# Entry
Amino acid sequence: MAELSQLARTMAMECPALRVRQASRVLTKLFDDELAPFGLLSSQLPILTATAMFGDRGATMSKLARALLMDRTTLTRGIRPLQRARLIRIARSRDDARAKTVVITRAGERAIQSIFPVWERVLGQITTSLGAETLIDIHARLDQVIALSTLAERSAVNGASDCS
# Structure
């Protein structure tokens, strides 16, 4: 039993996926608290902003999922509340009637404009707390982790999972 306890302790202390999830929960709480008056969760904001980045033509579900490094099922679940709130809409692709396109609505554009000062304030609090240089370093290191996405895709094909 002591051996199992030690294995678990080692995994908990050394697993980068666990640490990232813990940090994500902290950041999620900070942003969720501030986004609540807008009826949004921090998990929905990236979908809304990524959709906006694709402009008036929108993006297919596959293209949006790739941009967000999400699987389509998770993206579909995240889109539903945004669609019910009329911040985005699903349309048939202009180029391929079989494909669905996610498009931001005018209400979605206004939501981003309203949210931006609040988002900026939270980011300022995080920057003040961590320090600007530390935040820049975190971004750079996370970019390195994100670059592992091809490795993660290969692992998923082979049935591997993260350690959290």
Observations:
- Residues 106-130 form the longest helix (25 residues).
- The longest strand covers residues 88-92.
- Helices lie at 2-14, 16-35, 45-53, 61-68, 72-84, 106-130, 132-146, 149-157.
- The CA atoms of residues 60 and 81 lie 18 Å apart.
